[in-house]
Amino acid sequence: MSEVLIVPTGTANLASIEAAFARLNTPTRIATGATDIDQANHVVLPGVGSFGAAMEAIKTHSLFDSLCRRFDEQLPVLAICLGMQLLFEGSEESPTAKGLGIIKGHAARLTGAIRVPHMGWNHISSSGFVLQSGYAYFANSYRVESVSKDWSTAIVEYGGKWIAGIEKGPLVACQFHPELSGEWGLNMISRWLRC
Predict the structure, then answer these.
(1) What pTM value is reported for the model?
(2) From the candidates 42, 61, 118, 177, which is the catalytic residue?
(3) Residue of 81, 93, 167, 195 marked active site
(4) Which domains does the chain have, with CATH numbers?
(5) 3-state SS of 60-129?
(6) Catalytic residue flag (residue 183)
(7) Is 3 tagged catalytic?
(8) Is 18 assigned a catalytic role?
(9) Would the CA dihedral through 128, 156, 150, 72 be positive or negative?
């Protein structure tokens, strides 16, 4: 199995992601520049924390264009939690920060009579190849509002129904943390590695 490249967003718990791939006997490496991303077979875009800080880290490492190119070329990417939100044009969390803009739309704060942040296990419903129904671990205060119909979606219900994940061939993004979602999450990652 070739190694998986992890994008340094500066806001992610890389240890838990590296540990998940180690359990799947898959080596990982942290990207040091755009060339790494251009040459990688599989790329993980993680993130925990601030939208603006993560986008600043991507720009500081000159990774913006190479990440967009991977999506244009439909090369395998797994975007996790904040990483999913970064694919969009922006977020209410950091109104002046522009996202990657790969997908139209914005991330909005969770609302309603619910606890925010959303922390813990919740059921998602999906019929994708990588994203399948099951219980996933969430840790988020924001969520994506909508996505174009060329993406298949996974749905969660927490203060209403919203998008927990999206999938288009080898391009997968999830608001939850598969690396913290037990055997179900490892199986999801394993399916993505086969893309």
Answers:
(1) 0.96
(2) 177
(3) 81
(4) 4-193 (3.40.50.880)
(5) HCCCHHHHHHHHHCCCCEEEECHHHHHCCCEECCCCCCCCCCCCCCEEEECCCCCCCCEEEEEEEEEECC
(6) no
(7) no
(8) no
(9) negative
**d(C-alpha 115, C-alpha 110), whole Å:** 9
DSSP state of 159: S
Q: Cβ distance 188 to 132 under 8 Å? A: yes
Distances (CA, A) of 8 to 61, 63, 85, 193: 8, 9, 15, 20
Q: Would you state the pLDDT for residue 1?
A: 59
Could you give the 3-state DSSP secondary structure of residue 32? coil
CB 191 within 8 A of CB 130: yes
Per-residue pLDDT in tens (0 to 9) along the chain, 195 residues: 589 999 988 877 789 999 999 999 999 999 999 999 999 999 999 988 899 999 999 999 899 999 999 999 999 999 999 999 999 999 999 999 999 999 999 999 999 899 999 999 999 999 999 999 999 999 999 999 899 999 999 999 999 999 999 999 999 999 999 999 999 999 999 999 999
Please tell me the distance from the alpha carbon of residue 108 to that of residue 129, in angstroms, as a whole number: 27
* 45 close to 79: Cβ distance less than 8 angstroms: yes
Query: First CA to last CA across the chain, in angstroms?
Result: 12
Name the residue with tokens 């909508």. 146
CA proximity to 182, closest of 117, 120, 128, 125: 120
